[in-house]
Specification:
Blueprint (H helix, E strand, L loop, with lengths): L12 E6 L4 H6 L3 H9 L9 E5 L5 E7 L3 H5 L8 H4 L3 E6 L4 H14 L14 E3 L7 H19 L7 H14 L3 E6 L2 H4 L3 H7 L7 E7 L5 E6 L1 E5 L8 H4 L7 H16 L4 E11 L11 E3 L5 E3 L7 H13 L5 E6 L3 H7 L4 E5 L2 H14 L3 E4 L16 E2 L8 H10 L7 E5 L3 E2 L9 E2 L4 H11 L3
Parallel strand pairs: 1-3, 1-4, 4-5, 8-10, 8-13, 9-10, 12-16, 13-17, 14-15
Antiparallel strand pairs: 2-3, 6-7, 7-10, 11-12, 14-17, 18-19
Helix pairs in contact: 5-6, 6-11, 9-12, 11-16, 12-15, 14-16
Amino acid sequence: MSLAFAPAGAAALPLYIVDADGLADWLSDRPAAEQAWIKGAGFEAKLGEVCLLPGADGAPAGAVLGRGTAQTRARSRFGLARAASRLPAGTWAMVHDLSPDDLEEAALGWLLEGYRFDRYAKLPAPKARLVAPDGIDAARLEAIAAGEALTRDLINTPASDMGPDELEEAFLALARRFGAQSSVIRGDDLLAQNFPMIHAVGRASARAPRLLDMRWGHEGPMVTLVGKGVCFDTGGLDIKPSASMGLMKKDMGGAAAVLGLAQMIMALGLRLRLRVLIPAVENAIAGNAMRPQDILTSRKGLTVEINNTDAEGRLVLADALALADEEDPDLLVSMATLTGAARVALGPDLAPFYTDDDDVAQALGTAAARVRDPVWRMPFWTPYETMIEPGIADLDNAPKGGFAGSITAALFLRRFVRNPRYTHFDIYGWQPSDAPARAPGGVGQGARALLEMLPKVAGL
């Protein structure tokens, strides 16, 4: 699996990128034999459609890649990425009139199309390689692709090989690679150091709960990332039905997303002070599992009534967020596969985020559009605060009624944070069907948008 561009200066065949609406004009400038070949092949320049051009010796002399229409491009991100899988082995160079943003999307999409999760089975990967087009930052795109691949690998790995121990190993390996400081609090030490809700969620598992903590960088603004690391979620005593448990290896998708983003930040050497916090647990069932209607006292001192043991992600995040907030970072972000309600509202492809800071929201929206990493602002709707107040305790982890589930979960998390620039992502972390540059399975969401917006919001 190669997620890098071909070496600079490599001999390359031309890959002409042509809009469907401009195909006739483009053809009129080509040699008559080439026009006849392309028309005979029935090439219409549909999005991602490829037509090889024969050379005098029978080998390909180049290819034409369809860009479709404005309408089809609006309906498919990374549509040109399919060329990486459809072209034969060789080195290719784009011949295009793309805008800078479209060119960057095409180049990054080509790299991501090469991703394969091949830990357990050998999978064929594209053999066509792309020369980095002029006008892009090739090293930056390669760093982004590598970070995305880390996220996907972590999510795709089943819980048998990606429990709290293995997530810790991946976390520490990343820290060592970039010279970051790291520490881990495990098992009953969580109680001794005042992380009672992380402990309560993970104590029933044979694999001890823990809090992973990484610091990197010595100057610049402080950015803290908190990722939900529930390595498998049975639902606890409120056990999930089998149909709902089938994808629960991905319930650490928030942790995977922040680790992928952290790798991007460190690989690019951004001038900031980065902290990454991951509560890593398995929500299992045993005699010491937390029970419905138990009341937990959090790190922050707020009491929480447990009305559904399957709403555990917000509990582990709450303790980690309380710790993060004690330092008052310049930007505090949490990422979690938190609620099915977010999927009902926005589907699998669009990641909702919550923030009270309009500047952060605007910067995120602009950045997401530019890098084709779609996000959508949802409201911290304060009038719904009463829905998470059970009366017998300060907070309810699972309000009855089923309304506004993603919003009430976000409001729950906000109770543990004073930082006005706190931003929460309720991601899905999974690509349910094959799409350009996104094979079925684990996928990053929101990380590229955050990376793009950091210079403006964090003052880099």
